[in-house]
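User: I'm writing a short report section on ligand binding and want a predicted complex to refer to. Could you take this sequence and magnesium ion and write out the structure as tokens? A short remark afterwards would be nice.
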Amino acid sequence: MRTDRTFTMLKPDAVEKGHIGAILEKINASGFRIVAMKLTQMTTQDAKEFYAVHSERPFYGELVEYMTRGPIVAAILEKENAVEDFRTLIGATNPADAAEGTIRKLYAASIGENAVHGSDSDENAAIESAFHFAGREMF
Ligand code: IDP
Ligand code: MG
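Assistant: Sure. The structure tokens for the complex follow:
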């Protein structure tokens, strides 16, 4: 399994607030290469499946509502140690706990509406990338 790719989504709140450009600038400045990218909107079924691991959590319904309410930017990013380095760049799930300068510290409103997704393992990066992109959309 390759360890140099991760999957991200700029979530509906980030897109609504006009933060696509600023977030992509930080991603580029941090040394990630964009392998695949698109503006898309998840259906309820998509979001339920993507976040199936959280299906027993109390916030699952709210999470599915949020993630489907508008378009997202989905992307695959490449860099040595991509998964871990991208999680560092985005910061803690709750922006109140996120380090200064991280994407969530800068752009997230709350633990629920936290601007950006980053895969948590190489295995999930591969699964999530394949969920959103066909092979011919990866460069
Ligand atoms: P992560 O995105 O930092 O990996 P996870 O624990 O995997 O965090 O949760 C997935 C997503 O579910 C979060 O990014 C956030 O949008 C939402 N979420 C997580 N915990 C809560 C919560 O306590 N309340 C509301 N939404 C939450
Ligand atoms: Mg997660």
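A remark for your report: The longest helix spans residues 122-132. The chain has a mean pLDDT of 98.
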